[in-house]
Amino acid sequence: MATALKDTTMFIDKLYPDTEKNLKINNLTLQKYIHNYIDKNNEVLFAQGPTKRLFFSDTDREIIYRCIGNSDYRIKEVIKSNPIVDSSWKILNNPFNLACVLAIRYYQLQKKEKELEAAILYLSFSFYSSIQYKYFKYEPNENIMSYTINNLSNKFKIKQLGTMFKIIHSTAMTNHDTYRKNLEIGTDVSLKNYIMSLKTRLDGLIQKIANEFYKTRDSGMYLNLEEDIYEKEKYFVADNISFIITRTAEAATLRILNKGVDQKFVTLSANIGGISVNALRTAIQEIISTKDKDIKKLFILILQLYLIDGKHQPESIGSQNFINFCLEIYIKSNTKDETIIEIKKILDEWLTDCSANYVKTERIATKNNFRKSLYTYFILVLEQAYINSFSLNSYLYIPCIICCFKHTNMTLFL
Fold this sequence. Notes:
The chain is mainly α. The protein folds into two domains: 2-219, no CATH class; 241-406, no CATH class. The protein has 21 helices and no strands. It has helices spanning 2-6, 10-40, 42-45, 58-68, 72-81, 90-93, 95-109, 113-135, 142-150, 157-161, 164-185, 188-219, 241-259, 263-273, 277-290, 292-309, 320-330, 338-354, 356-360, 364-390, 398-406. Helix 13 (241-259) crosses helix 20 (364-390). It is globular. Residues 223-239 and 391-414 have low confidence and may be disordered.
């Protein structure tokens, strides 16, 4: 029985024919998208160390499914029916990883080396996005990271190669050379091993850097770029309000870009505004896909109003007080506060660009309800991200939210 499972080829038999047929047509589309992704994330990928977030959205995953002609749902069904896959294996149960390996196999068999390299990197970037967050819940201080890397021995790849792009590229291609034959063999086990080995190598790489980084941070020594000196215990990272704002906004942004639309929050937000759940979900999906660089800005503005202007304590972000304050911001229709005006402007621009339902309606009240629902959704995500990131023993005050909206006269943007 063990021998039979070892030799099964269910992934190839059920998914590869469509992959091969569709990639012949969609090759240029996929390659252009990957190259654009690298260009868009140039600053992150060519940083000296893992100091910046690399976001990998649902849109970045969807391009693979579309180009190989296999939906994530279909791939999930094949994975679920395969006896070699344990339901607890998160990496192999992720359909995107298998979709990428099918594309990688196609390019290898077709001897398309440049396209092969791009596809391998794309899978590696998706792994790196989650691994970097695993070891650095908040973006690490660049000065400490710089000092750490500069003082590493040459046995560390990051010291030899200089940028995250080069180190990811080197690790991914080394793994590919080691497991190249697995793709040609094409059994379910061989494809599984290819995926797992790449993830394991990248994880180990970032873990080593993280270990050294935290050693340096805890020692109190790092390169002080402002004074051009480095004295022991000269500098400690202050967990001040500005830092709380930045890392909470980043956590919320990462939650949205990595996990996509939260259906529970969409339903609640749409019901509060009295609009279509599907219309709101469609608008949010489009915002995530096209406004990803602006999402963090909205979160920062809300937090600035709450923590700086409102002079609240950070730990209260996970409380009823945060929700109440955010609702009060929303109903200020005649405010001259530039931050509040900017928040309203962002919401209006997003819906104008990303919601056909919003654009075509002429009723002011309906437009107000759309904005109200969208605003509510981002408040819920922001609060939940803070609670998750700071491990608070509290939860969303959903009954309070519903009560406040039901008993408040909302006349925003008239």
